[in-house]
TrEMBL record:
Residues 35-49 have a biased composition (Polar residues). Residues 29-49 are annotated as: Disordered. It comes from the Bacteria. This is Multidrug efflux pump subunit AcrA (Membrane-fusion protein). It comes from Novosphingobium olei.
């Protein structure tokens, strides 16, 4: 990265946005307003200190600020493939079948116990009725096992290993748009359970872990696909049948945090991101960033104390946050001089 580009970018980008925000009444200068004007005006975002911006949700939406969690990754060679959103309707139908079979099994088991108790007391219950009730209870229990096994048969053993309660919760999350079940196909590699796969590009980037092999192979690619669960902002966009780019690291590259390119703001010859914290954002400097296909890699041990996996950062609108951050602090002139 050429350091002479940073100041020019900061001076131009931050200066123009600061002027625009000033014109919109979001940055102020001059004497403080009197109490009457303060009572009539609405609450405005303020920079409590250098590197910290307090902003409400409405202003954040108006400025087009989008946040997403920081993911982990490596800078080693990568293999490319694709991921496809799966229809969770059949999975929900299986869960309903399991619940129905469970209810029938509970009822038949209770009936068998009742008849057996009556038979032992020699009260209005024949041996034949007891045996018939036991047979029905066993048949209903077998239907439960078959319904549960359908999860592994139709979707893959990795999903079955999650357990019935976790799969039931997954269908609820999928129905509400908080999760998506996806199939990943990357030719030329075999992905073991737990492998980390990157999805999407640019600011729309997510990381998932492989659950296990899919139930069927892709007829065109002849690849053994794997299943994964996608959660987060991208989940509600991963409709059934939608195709997304996917990649997996190979070899022994350096591990670290992946920061999307659109999240970067440049100031004072350094690269920064804005991490969401409380009611606003905190500016965090990136130490020793390495350019990779998915953005910038922050290697392990290179100043990650203020940024860790899962932290939510502004992947869009960082320039506006920088302008608000520097507005009224006396640093705009310094930024222009650098």
């Amino acid at each position: 990265m050429k350091h002479w580009q940073g100041p020019a970018w900061a001076a131009g980008g931050a200066g123009v946005l600061a002027a625009a925000l000033y014109a919109a009444g979001m940055l102020g200068s001059g004497p403080a307003p009197d109490s009457e004007s303060q009572s009539q005006g609405s609450a405005q975002p303020v920079s409590e200190s250098v590197g910290t911006v307090t902003i409400d949700a409405d202003t954040q939406q108006r400025l087009g600020i989008v946040v997403a969690p920081v993911a982990t990754g490596t800078d080693g060679p990568r293999l490319d493939g694709f991921a496809k959103g799966l229809d969770a309707g059949p999975l929900a139908a299986i869960i309903a079948e399991v619940d129905t079979a469970q209810a029938a099994a509970n009822a038949s088991a209770a009936e068998a116990r009742r008849l057996e108790s009556l038979y032992r007391q020699d009260v209005s219950a024949s041996r034949r009725s007891v045996e018939a009730a036991r047979s029905q209870a066993a048949a209903d229990a077998a239907r439960i096992r078959l319904a549960q096994q359908r999860i592994g048969i139709e979707f893959g053993p990795g999903l079955l290993r999650l357990g019935l309660a976790a799969v039931r919760q997954l269908t609820t999350e999928i129905a509400s748009g908080r999760a998506a079940l996806i199939r990943i196909d990357i030719p030329g590699t075999s992905l073991a359970p737990g492998s980390v796969v990157s999805l999407g590009t640019g600011s729309a980037l997510a990381v998932v872990r492989v659950l296990g092999p899919a139930a069927t192979a892709d007829a065109r690619l002849q690849s053994a696909g794997v299943l994964a669960i996608l959660r987060g902002p991208m989940a509600h966009q991963s409709l059934a049948g939608r195709i997304m780019p996917a990649s997996v690291a190979t070899g022994t590259g350096d591990a670290g945090l992946i920061v999307p390119r659109d999240a970067i703001v440049r100031f004072q010859g350094q690269m920064w991101v804005y991490r969401q914290s409380g009611k606003g954002f905190v500016r965090v400097v990136l130490t020793d960033p390495v350019s990779v296909a998915d953005g910038w890699l922050i290697p392990v041990g290179s100043g990650q104390a203020r940024l860790k996996s899962g932290d939510r950062i502004a992947v869009r609108g960082g320039t506006g946050l920088l302008a608000m951050d520097l507005g009224g602090t006396g640093q705009n002139q310094a930024a222009e001089e650098e």
